[in-house]
Amino acid sequence: xxxxxxxxxxxxxxxxxxxxxxxxxxxxITVLIIAAVGTLAVVGAWMLPETALLVRRxxxxxxxxxxxxxxxxxxxxxxxxxxxxxxxxxxxxxxxxAYTDLRWLGAQYLYSPLVLLAVPLWPLGxxxxxxxxGALRRKAFVLPLITRLxxxxxxxxxxxxxxSPEARLAARVAELTQTRAGAIAAHGAELRRIERDLxxxxxxxxVALSMRxxxxxxxxxxxxxxARQMLDDAQDLTEEALTELRHVVRGIHPPILTDRGLVGxxxxxxxxxxxxxxxxxxGLDDPALRxxxxxxxxxxxxxxxxxxxxxxxxxxxxxxVHLTRLSRGLDVVxxxxxxxxxxxxxxxxxxGIRRRVAALDGTVTVTSPVGGPTLIAVELPCVW
Length: 384
Known about the structure:
By secondary structure, this protein is of the alpha+beta class. It has helices at about 1-40, 45-70, 85-95, 95-120, 120-135, 140-160, 165-220, 225-250, 255-270, 295-315, 350-360; strands at about 275-280, 320-325, 330-335, 365, 375-380. The model has no long low-confidence stretch (mean pLDDT about 80).
């Protein structure tokens, strides 16, 4: 009885929220009518995209309510409403999910009265079932009905609010377009960095090396000692040029990844970070078990950037790195116990992390409240 009562209480709370939203939607009819009339009269056409955005927010609230009851998230697949008025009007009139929301609104107006009538049933059902179960020793029958009603309502809302295949496809195309643009921007920045490093470092040293060898050749016959000194300098320049080249190559694909694998490379990063870093590994102990090279490189650079940020900005001597093999990919979590308040617009490297991860269709979650701690969680999809 207690379990049934508790479940019915949750169902009643869900139905009460549904009823409250239903009441608000009846008031919202006025806004819809004004927007429709204004759009037909042309002078109020600006109201249509604003009303569509308001409907999106209302539908978003309902999605979260249903997800809280069912435990299943309802995805959104809206087209972004931006640009001048004509573009905004074209977007909201062609967005398949806008019509999904309108269909849900129409259904809400039809079945909301049933929900409003069902809300008072819980206290009445509690009394009836209390007498029925207590006096007659029978199984409760009213409270389960309330729970089933909440289940039915949630399934209806979930079915009505789920984006259509066309909307999912359009959202996916928009997402891939955005990540592709980010990947191209990151690739361009990386090429400019490599070009700058080669031009300012390696190329300058190779030019100086060529000049030293040329001078040594001229001085060899009449001043062997000077020529020998020039050749020694040339050898030093050669070693410096090789060091510069190793630095450039390390920025493209760190050789340590090839030599030691991701786990060994991350442990080396932790040891050289200047922090007390704890590295935890789950499911990656087998050296033969390797993620694709692009995934390993992305994970390596994420850890390197995060530890660099922690050393520069966190103010804490401690950090941790957790690598986890998932069935669907690789999970990387970096945490520091510093002051928090990481700002992605402040040049902390988080934008670069997001672009690098987005290029592999991964996700980045940054949690950094003021006062700390800062946690960067990255999931990189891959096939093992």
